[in-house]
Predict the structure of ROK family transcriptional regulator.
Amino acid sequence: MIPRGELVPAGIVGLLGTQGPTSRTEIARTLKLSPATVTQATKDLIARGLIEELESVPSNGGRPARLLGLLNDAGVAMGAKVTADHVAVVTVELDGTVRSSTSHDYDPGAPDAINRLGQILAKEVGELDDRLLGVGIGVPGSVDSQASGVVDAPTLSWQGAQVGPVLRAAIGTPVLVDNDVNTLAAAERLYGIGRDHSSYLVVTIGRGIGCGIVVDGGIYRGANGGAGEIGHIPVGLSGAEEPPCTCGSTGCLEANIGSAGLQRTARARGVIGRRGTLTTLSRAAANGDDAAQQIFEEAGGMLGRALAGVIHTVDPEVVVLMGEGVDGWEFWQTGFEPSFRRSLLPARKAVPVVVEPWTEDQWARGAASLVLSSPFDSANNGGEQSRLVRARLGAG
């Protein structure tokens, strides 16, 4: 988080919102600003009625440090996670607290799907009583940039979908769009692992296998916004015997160990019936079914080997595992841990892997984090949309 120029005031307001009352010294340290810059910026923000001085706290020698806090409600962000059958929408405060959560049935394959998404969000925005800073959208696919928001998402049947332009016209607020796993990485940057680590991976297991890559404090998106698609790493020999993937190829990691792949394997082995689901398989594993547990163990081993290759490529400080699949992580772990560690170079064998508890609204909360990250967008990933969010945040 290194704001520069016009990002400084919004960065300070955003930091106080995400971390709560903070001293000037801590603001300077966290945002990597000079004490003089922080002093001048906070003086202006106090004069404008955006922040105030609070109580003093002990310091390491010298005068006690004065804490600064937000004077008024700085606003909220809205986040929407788009899936193959519904849209989850949340309203999030600056400190990451989810204030409200709703879900809407949705058909992304309909001819008017993007306009329908605009109608859903316009209704949500119209019912909002708080001052809205902007709307973040998370999608399971590649996004050319957060600012423009043109989406390629095979699982949604979207190619070149003009999500950003259509939604901005429908809602009338700043809109930022990104891959859904990248949005989780953005949330970690504000509220989780990213506070203590500048380079990390967020890996999700569930319907698909995804990865958000953070390097030097910024999300790495690649040349076309498609970085992190580790679910499409080929893990077997190409051929008809390999399971088909939604991307059009065969033998991808996701095709083998995503939820559909696990179900396919379980049915082929007779562990679950023709109508059985991943829930059926998970229940069998929890009840001690050796064959069900073996399927998860094999999936964990395959994930461990693939992830080791990513570790060697990116060299992160830590890996965060998230997603619907972590509810059954105890069964994945028996295969993952030995496979992962065995596949790593000696210097990488101790890389920490943190498994975070999962709730459904984390996807949409991650999308809202695209908006809440705007004060710290020194790489200008959000372009004009981030600038508009900062203007709203700085206006008080």
Observations:
- The mean pLDDT is 90.
